[in-house]
Amino acid sequence: MTTVQTTVPPPTAAVRPKVVARAGLYGVLALNVVVVTVFFIQAGFASNTLIVLGRLAGLYGALLMAFQLLLVARLPWFDRRIGMDRLTSWHRWVGFGLLFTLLGHAVFITFGYAQSSSMDPVNQLVDLGQTVEGVFRAIVALGLILVIGGVSARFARRRLAYETWHFIHLYTYVAVVLAFTHQVAAGTTFTSSSAATTYWYVLWGVALGAVLLGRFVLPLWRNLRHQLRISAVVPESDNVVSIHITGRDLDRLPARAGQFFLWRFLTRDRWWQANPFSLSAAPDGRSLRLTAKTAGDGTAALRHLKVGTRVFAEGPYGAFTAMHRTRSEAVLIAGGVGVTPIRALLEELHGHAVVIYRVGSDRDAVLYEELRELAHAKGAELHLVSGPVSPDKLAPAELARLVPDIGDRDVFLCGPPPMMNAVLGSLRELGVPKPQIHFERFSLAG
Fold it and tell me: Which ranges carry the FAD-binding FR-type domain (predicted)?
């Protein structure tokens, strides 16, 4: 029996939560750029222009490195408003900016000192590494960042298992420590005054503290508090399984319909694997449920998990929630197993909703009976759209036929990337305003 919650949506804010969070991040970065520039000017300029440019590039590179840490700290306030997928995407692009600024720092400094000493650039770099404290650590840090940047490039990332890529990426923290100690040892800008030194330590303390809090302290504390265990494993079809999880004080877990966790099932052969699965039912304070497609060796083992298995869950994560509603009525579009957060959202949403469920064939419509029962109880319209990919059954004309007033509704979209891209194109063609379109690309979450 499906429990229907009649959560009343909060009044629409004058400024959207996502805009507030983005403005906050941009503001933090811009303010620190100004502060770093002021301290740089106060410290005075070198006589060699290349050295001046190199020092400035190094300072901005170090600032970008600290900002990168903030982007991947998984702080709940930012994550609920922006979403892990977008924060991860920004982290990636900031990473390329970091790579170029640090390369610029190394090149300008080396050529600048070589110009002054009449040494060739290679010998000058070797000499700096041997004679100037902290420079060798900086060279090692740059090498690590080059390797990490290389494996993060799209062509390389697609060829690596997530666990391999993640392990290599952990060396970023080694590079951070080496770069920071280099700045402390050799950086004239932040040793020129007590105010500059204090600022530098506070900046890095906040960045590293955010990572420690969001990535380690908060997940450990929540899992110790809630003591999650599997209470049931329910096959939904030949290749889809639902896992029910119980624990202590789940009414105090700040999870919402539409969010996901990174789940680790603590068995001998799975404890090291973390998989992102959305909640497939709205949290009720007593249990959690995820529903996953068992495609591949890792997820295929899910159906063999035993009742009582301990679970370590990182989260909740994601901005795919009713927090971002701008209209009183909604359209929920699901493709395949992307129905899981859509089904949970329908349970929480208040107001009229139209649900469109796109599948290859009717037998692929997992959770359909639940969805139909829930739609009936909520007074929502439910459309099951099945058939081959071509012709596109969610083309603009088809969407307009199913939901004539789609431009006046919020649209929540979840499904395979090709289907999502096609629907997003249809929504743009129909003129649905961008603030009314809500989606997340969960693959970026790992």
Answer: 223-323
pTM reported for the whole predicted model? 0.86
Among residues 207, 223, 413, 233, the alpha carbon closest in space to that of 316 is found at: 223
How is residue 310 annotated by DSSP? B
Q: With left for phi above 0 and alpha for psi between -120 and 50, is residue 239 left, alpha or beta?
A: alpha
Asked if 391 and 311 touch (Cβ cutoff 8 Å), the reply is: no
| 8 Å CB contact between 382 and 357 | yes
Is pLDDT of 413 > 60?
yes
Share of the chain above pLDDT 70, in %: 94
| Residue 217 DSSP one-character state | I
350 near 6, Cβ under 8 Å? Answer: yes
DSSP strand E in 163-310: where?
229-237, 240-246, 260-265, 275-278, 287-293
Distance separating alpha carbons of residues 190 and 192, to the nearest angstrom? 6
pLDDT band at 297, cuts 50/70/90? low
Nearest C-alpha neighbor of 82 from the set 92, 93, 71 = 71
pLDDT value of residue 162: 66
- pLDDT greater than 60 at residue 2: no
Cβ–Cβ under 8 Å, residues 88 and 324 = no
What SS3 string covers 183-209? HHHHCCCCCCCHHHHHHHHHHHHHHHH
How far is Cα 147 from Cα 203, in angstroms, rounded to an integer?
A: 26
- Angstrom distance (rounded) from CA 200 to CA 397: 56
* Cα separations in angstroms, 40 against 29, 43, 190, 280, 334: 16, 5, 8, 52, 52
Average pLDDT over residues 134-158: 80
Longest dimension (CA), the chain: 82
**Cα 103 from Cα 249, distance rounded (Å):** 50
Could you report the per-residue pLDDT of 52-98, keeping only the tens digit for each?
999 999 999 989 999 999 999 999 999 999 999 899 889 888 988 98
Q: Which of 342, 349, 341 is nearest to 378 (CA)?
A: 349
H or E element in which residue 355 lies: strand 353-359
